[in-house]
Amino acid sequence: MFVDTGIGAGFQQWRNKYPEFGQGMEGYGKRFGAQYADYASGIVIGHVVMQSIFHQDPRYFYKGTGSVRSRALYAIGTAFVRKGDNGRWQPDYSDVLGGLAAGEISTLYYPASSRQGRRLVDNMLLGFGGRAAHNLLHEFVLRKLTPHVSKMAAGLPQRILREGTPVSLISVEDWSSKTAENGESITFILASDIQEDGVIVAPIGSKAWGQASFSGEDGKAMHVGLEHVRLKVVDRDVPLRSTPLRDGGGALEYHRLENSGRIAITLYVAENVTLAPAR
């Protein structure tokens, strides 16, 4: 997520896209922040709001049988459709409408001279391309080209989500107006899939929650502490902590999204958690 955003911001700077942002580290930081805000808004709207409205499943459904060509066409084709809660394929309303809504929000932090219509089209095409590449990766690389997924999955033992696994989260609430409070309920969504043995065990958009304490005034020089944060993984509530190692020190690290009160943060699985066998 951070790597992809960093590369994209680098290309924009190289092409001097949005010249109002300037050059140098300041210009790169503005481009990085804007791209990350695009990504975060797309997740919040597309993977939480829209998927709840349209009852669509965010997961990739592995094919695993047939020729390489048929599997590749399937992986690319499923970038344009989603399975609904009724088990039937349907147009991917969630990502398309979520992307359009996120594009409208982006007018708040992109330069006024930017071509909004062109940016919306570019973002939509990039979204389809990114989902197609993501699906191809899952179909051919993460499952190691096996054509026998049903037999393999049936024989797999229970998976373990291991202690120390990084969990990238984005806050749902606006933190800019938070004042000194203790134990306030906070909700996050998962910013990237969590995988074990090449299988997604927690898809992007999964929810996490916990309690937070704030110190500072009206979001300025704000310090945040998180406690009892848990991520929903299928039927398990997975505990998270703020450092990779159990006895590791250091303060909780996070950063705010460009022109937004939401934050991006990486937490870590606090203990080994046994998951249900793969389906």
Read across the widest sheet, the strand sequence of neighbours is 5-6-9-10-11-13
The major β-sheet equals:
6 strands, antiparallel, barrel
- Helix/sheet category: alpha+beta
* Total of helices: 6
Rg, Å, rounded: 20 Å
* Proportion of residues in extended strands: 25-35%
- Give the helix level as a range of percent: 25-40%
Unreliable segments of 5+ consecutive residues? 145-156
The N- to C-terminal Cα distance equals: 27 Å
What is the count of β-strands?
Answer: 14
Mean pLDDT: 77
Write down the secondary-structure element order.
HHEHEEHHHEEEEEEEEEEE
| Global morphology | globular
Features:
37% helix, 14 strands, 279 residues, 6-stranded antiparallel barrel, alpha+beta, globular
State the gist of this model.
With 279 residues, this protein is an alpha+beta fold. The protein contains six helices and 14 strands.
Explain what this protein looks like in three dimensions.
By secondary structure, the chain is an alpha+beta fold. Helices cover 37% and strands 27% of the residues. Strands 5-6-9-10-11-13 form a 6-stranded antiparallel beta barrel. A hairpin with a 2-residue loop joins strand 9 and strand 10. The protein starts with a helix and ends in a 5-residue tail after the last strand.
